[in-house]
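Today's session is about reading a structure prediction critically. Students often jump straight to the picture, but the first step is always the sequence itself: look for stretches that repeat, for charged clusters, for runs of hydrophobic residues. Only then move on to the predicted structure, which in these notes is written as discrete structure tokens rather than atom positions. Here is the chain we will use throughout the hour.
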Amino acid sequence: FLENKNRDFNPNQKKNKINSQSFERKLIVNGDISYRLDSLETIGFNTGGVNLKRRMEYDENGNRTLYISYYRYSESQSFVPSQKVEYSYDENGNRTLYIIYIWNSESQSFVPSQKGGDYSYDENGNLTLYIGYNWNSESQSFVTSRKTEYSYDENGNLTLYIGYNWNSESQSFVPYAKREYSYDENGNQTLYILYYWYSESQSIVPSLKGEYFYDENGNRTLYIKYY
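Below is the predicted structure for this chain, in token form.
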């Protein structure tokens, strides 16, 4: 099975608002054809014979609090758990924590895999900091893995993104990518520059640049990519 869009597995995705507190939905696949059963996500496609089921729960504000996926390879089999994600939010509806669990067939239970926490937001509710952790089976605890920082202009447009990986030797975060964005007075994106970490120079260096041009009606008329 191949996911066409990774929405369910992206813990930092935007929240979907619905009225019901929980529901289940099944994906029945015949050959290479998959059926979209509701309007929340596009499931994807497969190479034949897989049935999927997804269970989601929401709080009274429409924030997703639980996601569990199940699968089976034939209709004669029972659904087997695959993945579970738990979410927590603050009083403003901003996500503060998620934990991903993977099903362990030997213990017949979910075991931790990843955690996202230490979220920070600005006064407008824009995400400014995220720190991720991976589960260490030896220490039976979460260890620091990654960090992302975001900056915005006065209109809430993303202007800077910096991604870091944790270096266990130096016990510090090391940047691996940076993205800069610019906008015109109408909020149209006019420029982006991508940077990547090069270990030889031990620095972030430019890698890619894109420019956008618009007419007086705000329609994009030209895009130029530089390498």
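Discussion point for the tutorial: The chain is about 0% helix and 60% strand.
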